[in-house]
Amino acid sequence: MSGGSLTLRGRVRAVLGENIDTDIIYPGRYLNITDREKTAEHLFELAYPEIRPALQPGEFIVAARNFGCGSSREQAAAALKFAGAGAVIAASFARIFFRNAINLGIPAVVAPDAAALCAPGDELEIDLAAGQIRNLTRNVTISAAPLDPRAVELVSTGGLIPYLKRKHAAAS
Questions:
Q1: Does residue 29 fall inside a structural domain?
Q2: pLDDT for the residue numbered 36
Q3: Nearest partner of 113 among 80, 87, 135, 83, judged by Cα
Q4: 60-117, pLDDT tens digit by residue?
Q5: Which terminus of the chain has a smaller tally of CB atoms within 10 A, N or C?
């Protein structure tokens, strides 16, 4: 799918503020959990305990700037993935969180105005390659940074590991 596009459609589960750090996403006290799928049980546990039980597969988390700041732990992105989040949309991301999300196959969409133009329950359509979010509920278009074609390919295959497995199988 090199150079292709990927469009996602889903509802906004939550709109969060600025500086949502990795301890808020996945508390450090659970770093001893080695089963990555179990990380989902503790997503936003301390700061937003209502999000995890309500999150439906494919729903989006929207936030203001600096999402994923703090520790570089991959468990924060893994908790979002295994909880079923369809994408995280934020005004900006901490660089390492952004890379971890893409490597795990979670779309991390940079959209500076999204937090102001979205509300929980809004239905969105995201074109990752074009860098466009359509809020279908409010009938507005939100500018986003297009994902690099390689990132779109990683997301579409489910992350770096499935991508490499597929690539290796094709070469065999």
A1: yes
A2: 82
A3: 135
A4: 999 999 999 998 889 999 999 999 999 999 999 999 999 999 999 999 999 999 999 9
A5: C
Nearest to 164 by CA among 96, 172, 79: 172
Closest CA to 124 of 61, 81, 171, 71: 61
CATH number at residue 18: 3.20.19.10
Condensed to tens digits (0 to 9), the pLDDT of residues 108-154 reads 999 999 999 999 999 999 999 999 999 999 999 999 999 999 999 99
Here the tokens at position 88 are: 């995280």
